[in-house]
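Figure 3 (text version): structure tokens given as input.
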């Protein structure tokens, strides 16, 4: 009888879903300014993903974010960048930014939890992620300039 009870408890424990590994990762906070062609500059509060661990975690496991907030991924050297939405519950707009701070590509309304890779069309230095709809809501377009110390922006 003890063996059967142990087997039932073991089976029950195996059926409990594993909690996601969401150990906290600290992100430095900062601000960026987006110079838009069609409107006044826009200030956004960002968290900076600068290390491999920070870039790997990104906005995973989060369920909300302020409209005027985002995460800026700094890849340190220009390269083709692949992003995905695994473990990310919120739909996002992704802004792919070259080394001069110019937004070269925008992926709008990304699909939550998707493992499909969203690949940059050329070498980029960073990616800004904001809530889905931000590109339309704030009038952010390809060619706009992101001002932050990460980028070599001409004054």
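Below: residues designed for each position.
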């Amino acid at each position: 009888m003890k063996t059967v009870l142990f087997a039932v408890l073991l089976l029950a424990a195996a059926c409990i879903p594993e909690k996601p590994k969401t150990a906290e990762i600290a992100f430095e906070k900062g601000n960026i300014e987006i110079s838009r062609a069609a409107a006044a500059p826009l200030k956004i509060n960002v968290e900076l993903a600068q290390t491999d661990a920070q870039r790997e975690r990104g906005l995973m496991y989060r369920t909300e974010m302020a409209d005027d907030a985002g995460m800026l991924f700094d890849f340190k050297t220009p390269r083709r960048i692949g992003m995905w939405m695994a473990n990310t519950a919120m739909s996002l707009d992704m802004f792919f930014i070259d080394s001069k701070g110019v937004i070269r590509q925008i992926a709008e309304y990304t699909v939550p939890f998707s493992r499909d890779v969203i690949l940059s069309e050329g070498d980029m230095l960073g990616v800004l992620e904001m809530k889905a709809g931000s590109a339309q809501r704030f009038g952010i377009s390809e060619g706009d300039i992101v001002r932050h110390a990460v980028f070599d922006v001409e004054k």
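The chain has one domain: 27-147.
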